[in-house]
Amino acid sequence: MSRIGRKPIPVPDGVTITIEPELVSVKGPKGELSERISRDITVAQDDAVLVVTRPTDRGEHRALHGLTRSLVANMVIGVTDGYEKSLEIQGVGYRAALKGRDLELALGYSHPVSVAAPQGIEFEVPQPTKVIIRGISKQLVGETAANIRKQRPPEPYKGKGIRYVDERVSLKETKKK
Fold first, then answer.
1. Quick one: which of 7, 22, 68, 168 has the fewest CB in 10 Å?
2. Is the pLDDT of residue 170 over 80?
3. pTM, whole model, 2 decimals?
């Protein structure tokens, strides 16, 4: 049995879960999320715990078992605590600023790069070289952070560009004579 799929999902107070065929909706203090699930996988609520089960041990069902459990657990965490990703900008003259809800980046191009905030995402710029992305959907927060990083990924010679705060960029050796 899947080690991840077997774990029960604790449901905190203030979170309501609606289970329909092929759809699980989670509503909490920060908002509401819903996710389509396979009709083969069963999600059941027992008091303050959600249990995900699968019908057989076929490879397809085993894969969907762990995936469904992870998606539902991420929704529960999202509506209670939310998710956050931090990016740092390195390079002379590289900086970020908020323009309303959107993010404007100066990345060494001839023009500023503007990134629109998707629905459910908030940007915060505590320093001109640091950007924090917050939201309730883990997938949307990660995708938005990846799209911002894609504007100027860290280059391997001087390390200039946008990187995740905990990311380690290995620099190439310089040529020596």
1. 168
2. yes
3. 0.88
